[in-house]
Fold this sequence. Notes:
alpha/beta, globular, eight-stranded mixed beta sheet
Amino acid sequence: MINVDPLEIEKFNQLAHRWWDPHGEFKPLHDLNPLRLGLIEEAAGGLAGKRVLDVGCGGGILAESMAARGAQVTGIDVGEKPLKVAQLHLLETGHQVDYRRASVEQLATEVQDCYDVVTCMEMLEHVPDPASTVKACAAVTKPGGLVVFSTINRNLKSFLFAIVGAEYVLGLLPRGTHEYARFIRPAELARMGRDAGLNILKFVGMTYNPFTKVYALSSDTDVNYIAVARRA
């Protein structure tokens, strides 16, 4: 596999059976999904009929929700167990998603200029070379197509909130989910995007209120953020 950390893959393989439990380890993904889906759909001008690629799809939470909006979705991941969970879940919902075990770098050697929308959510901070992933995401996107990334900023606040707070104090995520050194500043992601032929349209922050337990989109990109880009 290209650009893969085996320890990261094993981490998510061990949790795969919990992927669709809305109260389990992946509860933040379930809670965030409506916000992410709405932002993607608005930026794309609607998903119905669009060819969409979800990179690092895991158990398929976002991929299935985009398919439910009428998109023709392909989901790729290098983890075997999350993909099996995603495929089994389709039997319950009846949605149509083409799941494949592959990295986006591998896919880019097979297809180019193919997808209207490419999403890569909560993945860049888990790969050894995020610039390689950004470049491959751009390569498989049609000229003028949309690419959406979500990741975590790198600063003291993100360390306190995303690691100390989320993993050790609030227990929102399993301990060891993230490594601070792999977090990516918006300026760094913008540079990776430019080098790959992507124009960053906007950055949108995602915040969490520990008292109301509600996630929201905001202008605060200090911790979690989404980057919306268009291929030139």
